[in-house]
Amino acid sequence: RAAADQAGLAVVAAEEADWVAGTEAVARITWDATRVAAVSARSAGVVHAIRAEVGDQVSAGQTLAVIRSAEVAGDRSRLVSVTGAQALAAAEVARKTELLAGGVSSERDLLTAQQALAQADANLAAAQAELNMVGGGDGDSTALRTPLGGVVTARHARVGQFVNGLQPLFEVVDPSRMWAEVDIPERDLAAVAPGQSVRLQLDALPDTVIVSTIATISPSIDPDTRTARARVELDNPDGRLRANLYGTATIRGATA
């Protein structure tokens, strides 16, 4: 007993408790890919003004930049033209209907007028759809709007830059929900499946333990790292989780 006391040993009654097998793996926080928007110009033109910068909080539909485009000016001119043509076609149908009722015109004439109105309606709808795609504005100006609310994480647009819709000008991310990508070693894959509980501890948040479940596991193995990537979905209402934070994921296995 004296030797045990000197060694700092203590004797206590045994207690029964669960033993949980677990798999540890490297985890990295990333954006939820379904909440990332790459915003591009809808038509060729020149950037006229910048309305948002990296780090700005934006709402869905908010203008990020103003672009001046000859294509948009042409679309608006066509809209005016087809609007007038549709009004004339509608008036002609009304006139032919009255004439038919008075016995002056034929049903064939009315049918021809109705076909012309149907074509004018289609032309007007197509012109309106084209302008709806490029956003609001007047004349040759068009507003580049974000489709979702969140944070501007990248801006590639500059005033005076020619854009053609091929390059993304802004990136907007909704960070209220994040993903953790967990690299599962090949040797441990047999013990891991979607739905299993995961405990995340991040290097930047050492006193915080995040509990979630595996959503999906990649069907392929990375040939260089010999790991398969699992995805864990995480709520992030307070914004404490940031993209590219690293940590450790412990995947709970069988209990005994």
Structural overview:
- The protein is α+β, with helices and mostly antiparallel strands.
- The protein contains three helices and 14 strands.
- The two termini are 33 Å apart.
- The mean pLDDT is 86.
Descriptive tags:
256 residues; 14 strands; alpha+beta; six-stranded antiparallel beta barrel
The neighbouring-strand order within the major sheet is 1-10-13-12-11-14
Helix-residue proportion: 25-40%
Element-level helix/strand string: HEEEEEHHEEEEEEEEE
What ranges have pLDDT less than 50 throughout 5 or more consecutive residues? none
Mean pLDDT: 86
Task: Describe the oligomeric state of these chains in a short phrase.
Answer: single chain
Rg result: 32 Å
Structural class given helices, strands, pairing? Answer: alpha+beta
Q: Give the overall shape.
A: elongated
Please indicate the percent range of residues in DSSP E strands (runs of 2 or more). 35-45%
Number of helices: 3
Distance between the termini: 33 Å
Tell me the total number of β-strands.
14
| Major beta-sheet overview | 6 strands, antiparallel, barrel
Brief account:
This protein has 256 residues and is α+β, with helices and mostly antiparallel strands. The protein is built from three helices and 14 strands. A six-stranded antiparallel barrel has the order 1-10-13-12-11-14. Strands 2-9-7-4 form a four-stranded antiparallel β-sheet, with no helix packed on it.
